[in-house]
Specification:
107 residues; mainly alpha; WH_DNA-bd_sf; two-stranded antiparallel sheet; Arc Repressor Mutant, subunit A
Length: 107
């Protein structure tokens, strides 16, 4: 659960969500990620450090560049947790449907 806490904490920031949306399109370097933002490279690097610490992205070293990409396992863990909540809600809605059906007046 600690990894989920870190992931949701990282996702709380709109800049980090935008970075993840960009990385959903494919791998990118820090300089490519800086372009759409009115931020410095060190500021984006700090956001990337948070995302990496939360396990949402992975970086590799390619010479002087450090391309980033999404970490599929982290997104899968979040999806699994949300799936559990979806199933619980569906069960509740099914029970509510049963109660409402039983309340219908006889015609």
């Amino acid at each position: 659960m600690a990894s989920l806490d870190a992931a949701f904490s990282a996702l709380a920031d709109p800049t980090r969500r935008a970075i993840l949306a960009r990385l959903a399109l494919g791998e990118a370097t820090v300089m490519e990620l800086v372009e759409p933002f009115d931020m410095t490279q060190p500021a984006i690097s700090r956001h990337l450090k948070v995302l990496e610490g939360a396990g949402l992205i992975v970086r590799r070293i390619e010479g002087t560049k450090r391309p980033c990409r999404l970490a599929p396992s982290a997104v899968a863990e979040i999806d699994q947790w949300l799936g559990m909540l979806r199933r619980a809600l569906e069960t509740n809605y099914d029970r509510l449907d049963d109660v409402l059906a039983a309340m219908k007046p006889e015609q």
